[in-house]
Amino acid sequence: MNSPNRYIVDFDPFAVRFPESFFLDGIRWYGLAYLAGFVIAYMLLNLYSSRGRSPLTKDDNASYITYLLFGVIVGGRLGYMLMYDFANFCANPLTLFYIWKGGMASHGGFVGVVLATVFFARSRKVSFWTLSDMIVTVCTPGIFLGRIANFVNGELWGKISDVSWAMIFPRSAPLGTPLSEIAPRHPSQLYEAFAEGLFLFLFLQYRFWRGNLPKGRVSGEFLVLYAIVRIVCEIFREPDFEVAPILGLSRGTFYSAICLITGVGIIIFSERKNK
Q1: Considering the domain boundaries, does residue 60 fall inside one?
Q2: Does 208 fall in a domain?
Q3: Which of 3, 101, 216, 256 could make an S-S bridge to 270, C-beta 3.0–4.6 Å?
Q4: What is the mean pLDDT of the chain?
């Protein structure tokens, strides 16, 4: 199944490495992806403000991004520890703060964003659904960059495949395994980057600028579409064997199903509320 023409995914996960005497190993591409995602989100929020599509000022946007940053990091990290690494979390709860070692859950990040938006909406006395409909349209570039960082890190690889674009992920095999003996796999991180990130960004931007949609409609559509594309991508992604499935489903598929049901409920709620 392997071939000398297969692309080998073997990047350095660090954009910058620090001296061994430093308390951190360096700056990871994953961290830079998060940073770039927040910068893009801030720029888009400012664009909405300047075009009269947002109740927030540019100063408000800076504060909102701070809320979101805290929500994403805490929610994403706590979600990962509870959903994917609960045993280690119970053994050493302080691992929750080992952010530099990686480990973030997108579904946990969603919960963190929702809670951050609830608190910020109350502090500014604006509609939660107005903010929600805006934030779902600006978060997808961060999802795209995060999945690209997963690819660079050579993690969250896909299932073994013989398709022509399958790639070699050295970390998918025991350390020291010759490359010629490592089976090629789907680059599922790239599938997710373009489906969860680029596709959703283009679709949601179209829906947002179209205008005259009921409050909450764009938020519901985001959850439904994210869940669908994530469930499809899970077909090609190698499950985490150290994490037990739920009802026979991978964790990603199960939590996406919850997102799907929630999204449908929000769409129905928004339509009935605005009749």
Answers
A1: yes
A2: yes
A3: 216
A4: 89
Q: If you write DSSP's letter for every residue of the chain in order, what string do you get?
A: ---TTSPB----SEEEE--TTSSS-EEEHHHHHHHHHHHHHHHHHHHHHHTT--S--HHHHHHHHHHHHHHHHHHHHHHHHHHT-HHHHHH-GGGGG-GGG----HHHHHHHHHHHHHHHHHHHT--HHHHHHHHHHHSHHHHHHHHHHHHHHT-S-B-B--STT-BB-GGGS-TT--GGGSPPB--HHHHHIIIIIIIHHHHHHHHHHH--PPTTHHHHHHHHHHHHHHHHHHTTBPP-TTS--BTTB-HHHHHHHHHHHHHHHHHHHHHHHT-
User: Averaged in consecutive runs of 10 residues, what is the pLDDT profile of the chain (275 residues)?
Assistant: 79 88 80 92 97 95 94 84 76 72 74 93 95 95 94 94 96 92 96 97 94 91 96 92 78 91 96 78
d(CA 126, CA 86): 37
Among all chains, which residue has been given the structure tokens 């674009």?
165
Model's pTM, two decimal places? 0.88
Whether 242 maps to a domain, the answer reads yes
pLDDT of res. 2: 58
Confirm whether 174 is domain-assigned.
yes
HEC assignment per residue over 21-37 = CCCCCEEEHHHHHHHHH
- The tally of domains found in the chain comes to 1
* Residue of 234, 236, 240, 241 whose CA lies nearest to 257: 234
- Say what the pLDDT of residue 100 is: 60
